[in-house]
Amino acid sequence: GSILGVEVNAMRKSYSTQLVVMDENQSATQAQNGGFLKSNIFMLTIPEIDGGSNLSIKINWSQKVVCSNGEYSLNVPFTFPEFINPAGKRMAKREKIRLNVDVVAGSELLFKTTSHPLQEVRRQAGSIGFLCDNDVLSWSKDDFSFSYAVSSSRINGGVLLESASVHDFDQREMFYIYLSPGDIQHKKIFKKEIIFIIDISGSMQGKLMDDTKNALLSALAKLNPDDLFTIIAFNGESHLFSKSMELASNDAVERANEWINTNFVAGGGTNISHPLNTAIEMLSGARSSVPIIFLVTDGTVEDERQICDMVKNHMINGESICPRIYTFGIGSFCNHYFLRMLAMIGRGQYDAALDVDLIEPRMLSLFEKASSLILANIKMDMLDEIDLVEVFPSHIPDLSSEGPLVLSGRYKGNFPETLKVKGIMADFSNFEIDLKIQKDKGIPVQRVSARDQIQLLTAQAWLSENKQLEQKVAKLSLQTGFTSEYTCMIMLETDHLKKIKESSGSKEVLKKKLSKHDANVQGQRTILLPHVGIGFGDLKATAENTPPGYETKPEMAEIFKAASNCVDTVCGYCCCMCCVQCFSRMNNQCLTVLNQLCIGLGCLACLECCSHICCCGDDN
């Protein structure tokens, strides 16, 4: 998902986040008060809150609906610990969940499960609304989950169109194309010739190697007996399980398991080009199957642009079904935009585990998509006839039974009444379908497609080193609220007791670069937050074989960890709520005295002793 913004209102002050264009000369050390503790935990520190204040907190984020086995599911964090209730105050507890499901015309939704009681409050053409609004004795202890399926016995899809707003920097029209696999029970999938290219460099040690091995062993066990496979383990050199493709028989899979356990030993550097070239050559003769390259790495290399050019040339001059390239990145030291671009050129897909604890499930999920292809070589010739058309991704991937295929983009002029889609089925028969065009369905096309477009445009900007594309990404980021590599987040602190200067130039301050942030509006203070982009890889960390997970975290993360350990320890001896009640009833003078006392103890080196006893935690 993506964090879009946070708003906090207190009695005297309010705080809100906003995106601004990043200044290349801005020092990262100036950032403070926030950032990601982990890939899925965003932290924001509010500098000053008066005691006894009631807080109103609003968080906006975007996340994708997950599709698996023909079922779509949404899981939203909705768990609240007991200690969030203000001590000594009786407050009414009310939970309210509003869910809107936009239905494409001609599709029937089958609702499966929900974690909270929902009532249908609205049903219109193409839209259904649900509501859960209850007074409760205690806050929810379960995340909100909702799942549904779309009933269809065949491959289906459609096209949504949306006009640009008057404030849009790009005045071309927008389109959103989706192709769904339909009922997958009787769908025939392509036979596979798959080569696993696995990084075993020195940084892939310990849990990283174990989880990668487990995922690979599970993937091998799921191959069909008529599939062909081999494995290339690489560091500075390449190590082949077999110099030729082997049938996925029980004997071959068992020998592969033994080979993996023997040869998957972390050590050496990182050379992606050689094993990738080897795999492409081995798959050049594939005729009655889909050739697939499945690349896994945690590092970045210097010749990434040359690798992309090499693969692109092969795809132009290759066979009717060129090797599909699926890429999987581990941690933040690899160049995820290189992996994304490589997958797009190879008409495959990309995924990542920024959190190393998610390696096994995310890697297996990507393998399921790669091994469940039902429609290949997809073409939409009519798109080439539209003026000034831009399609994301530019190379159309194959359709998998594990989820829908989505394309989006911009165009100028008239869109055809129907869009003809062609492809090849698993039995190598031809497939055609006419997709209907729908306009003004109330579905925010730009908001739905913005995140993918930003990431794909960033990959193109990285590959071409094009400054104009970088500026385009920044504009799209500011317009939609999705973060990018060329924008960063700031926090605006507004003091409502001061008169805010009303001037025509006050709104322009937020649109200027960070170097201009010192020109704050009267009554407002601008705080720069840490950059939330994943960057373009780390050659130094890769060369030094630094394992993922050793990235520099916000300073507050260490404080947060120590505080958590301390609270856990103290809670074993006294009631946490009693402490909260005690501190909440102190006035500012008492708190100041207590603070000075702690500082004094620190000067006498007693604080270090106490922190060692109470807050050291258990690193194991």
Primary descriptors:
disordered C terminus, 4 domains, eight-stranded mixed β-sheet, Rossmann fold, 620 residues, alpha+beta, 13 helices, seven-stranded mixed β-sheet
What's a concise summary of this model?
With 620 residues, this protein is of the alpha+beta class. The chain has 13 helices and 29 strands.
How does this model look, in words?
The chain folds into four domains: 198 residues, no CATH class; 86 residues, no CATH class; 180 residues, Rossmann fold, CATH 3.40.50; 60 residues, no CATH class. Helix content is 27%, strand content 31%. The C terminus is likely disordered. The chain starts with a strand and ends in a 6-residue tail after the last helix. It is built from 13 helices and 29 strands. The strands form six sheets. An eight-stranded mixed β-sheet has the order 23-25-14-13-27-26-22-24, with helices on one face. Strands 15, 16, 17, 18, 19, 20 and 21 form a seven-stranded mixed β-sheet that branches. Helix 5 links the parallel strand 20 and strand 21. Helix 1 runs antiparallel to helix 2 and helix 1 packs parallel to helix 6. The protein is an alpha+beta fold. InterPro entries: VWF_A (IPR002035), vWFA_dom_sf (IPR036465). This is Inter-alpha-trypsin inhibitor heavy chain H3. It comes from Trifolium pratense.
